[in-house]
Every structure is written in C-alpha cells, then in structure tokens.
Task: structure prediction
Amino acid sequence: MFESHHALGVAQALAPARPVTLVRPHAARAAARFFARHFPGRSFYAVKANPDPMLLNELWAGGIRAFDVASIGEARLVRALLPEATLAFMHPVKAEEAIAEAYALGCRIFSLDSHEELAKIVRATGGATDLSLLVRLRVSSAHSKLSLASKFGIGVTEAPALLMAARQVADSLGVCFHVGSQAMTPQAYADAMAFVRAAIVEASVTVDVIDVGGGFPSRYPGMEPPPLLAYFAVIHRAFEALPISYSAELWCEPGRALAADYASVLVRVEKRRGEELYVNDGAYGSLFDAAHVAWRYPARLVRAEPSTAQPLGFALWGPTCDDMDHMKGPFVLPADVRPGDYLEIGQLGAYGQAMRTGFNGFGEHDAAIVHDAPMLSLIPDGEDAAVPDNVMPLIRRQA
Result:
C-alpha cells in the first residue's frame, strides 16, 4: 500500500482519478490505547463502525482485546483475524443458526431484550451453563445526534421479569443499553444509569455486568463535545453507586470514538457550479452520512500552493446519476477551489468506510497510509491524560 506523510503527497504521487481512502494506523492505535488505559472497565470495539482488518489489528495492538459483533459475519471476521479476542454478540435479535455458530466460535456473551430471544439463546447453545447474558434496556437518546431508542430495548417496567428469567440460566447476568450515537454530554449516561438502577432494584437480582454501550463522541464541525475523560468519570461514579455485585464489571462498546480518526478520503473536483462541487465520492460511497443524515465533516483543499482566498461553504454532488447523491454540508473550503483540485474530507473512519457501496459502478477506490494527525480528534495527545479543570464542575453536576 502506498505511504506518504499527508494527503498532498498522495495526490502529487498518484494523481488519482478515483477516491483514495487515507488510513492512519497510528491514530487508531492511539485511540485504543486511550480507552484501554483510561476507561474504568473493559472496552469492546463495535465492529460495525468499521470492520477494516488493518483497523482491527491496530486496535488489538493498542490494547483492545474484546469486540462487539452484531452479525455472524463480524464474528467470523474477528475470530479468523484475532483468534484470542473475546467476542460479544450484542445484537438483541439474532438468527438461531447465528447464535449456534457464534457459540461454536467461542462466543459466550449475548444480549437480548425479550423472553423469546432468551429461549432462542438457550436452545441454540444447547442449554449451556457458561453464558453471559445482557438484558438491553431502552433508554433515551435525547442527548445524542443519532437516536437508537426505537428499535431495541425493553422498558424499565418490563425488564425485571426478563432479568429474573435470564438470571436462572446465566452464569453471568448483565444490563446493557445504548444512549444513541454521538452523545454530546455525559448526562446521557447519568440518565441511563438511573433507568438501570430502577430495573435492578425492582428485579432484586444479582447483576454481574453493567455495559454502557457506545455513543462516545468524536469531533466534527459544529460538534464540540466535552473531553472523553468527563464521560468516563460520570460513568464510573454512577456505576459505583449501583446496587450490584461487589465484583461486578463495567463494560463499554465504543465504535465511533475508536474508529473516526482512522480514515479520511481524498476526492477530486470534477466540476464547479457556483457554490456546488461535483466530486468522485458521495452518498453511495464514504459520504453516506453526509447525504442521508446531513452529517458535517471537516474538509480541506489539497493543493501545493496554499490558497489565500476567503473561506466559503460548499455543497457537494457525488458521482452517481442520482439526485440523492447530494451532501449539503456546508463543507468550508477556499473560495477559489476549481475542477482538478483535490479535497480531503476527514473523520470518516467510523461508518464512512463501512457504508460504501458499488452503486452505479462507482464503488472502486484506492487506499494509502498517511502519517499526519487526523483533521479533528477528541483523543488527547500523548500517553497521559487528565480531566481538565474546567470539566470538573460538569462531572460533579452530572454524576
């Protein structure tokens, strides 16, 4: 794979006619190291955010030893690539055949949100006695940019009966939830933990695991969440206050926060129409979220001679013949951007790579390794990190 220090080196050396995914292995390893060292529990990488084998290897090298798989395909991938990894099948609705195969692959951790799913797990594993079963609660996504509150999860009033039933067959019983993607405040986790407390108290069962799921944010234009250490501190304090087993474990399932910094995309401008740019990647490629949920990504002009033009907000059109292939942005770039220029669009390691399709014949892309810093990041520089003084009042308020 071609390597360069930065996007400009790739553009100058390759003059690519199709998109180039720029991967930053060092950024993925730094994110993994940060979670492994500072989250007050065990971190499971949510593979759905990006299943790139290079990324998975870098996360392993950075200290991530457990993986949240949501399909049997993801379970097979991780087991083949990382034979010693811990697998957790955290999709609450699974095919019975998938459960059986995952169990055969060594997976012992399963989530559920119904009595039907519990019965399915028991059948598919042959009544195994070594299962860790996590009941997924439905919690609010009010503090997050993308809701995950509708599809999965059992209500607090219904949860006690399911917790008691799962306790009868589980070697280890847990409660899990997901506050939604890109949680913009630690309050999301404080609120969810209140639901967890209510369910545990009503069920009167011994709980061995609390899994706070994903939702940990990254930085994007217009989205400046607090430091991740503030989230960790709030979660830890709420965990310590729960009525759970003295030896209970705290887990999380970061996806975006571990993967976002890993990749960006280098695209070429094919046409300009006023404040609209036609580029060679788009809604059916790595810019799916930019089109379909109006997610804003950082962008910069990749040109040997820096532009002195004033910044201007542009919309983008992707390469397909579909009117839906439109990213309204705004993508802030110098006003003199022109056809033939290259642009780097950042923070696409989470979901950008994973959502790419081959629609209309435009799925082909190249890849290169770059060694500069991500365009934006919420991962602190260096090996050590501390909660900034200005974050402490936020922690005291929300924990």
About this structure: Residues 390-399 have pLDDT under 50 and may be disordered. The CA atoms of residues 5 and 20 lie 14 Å apart.
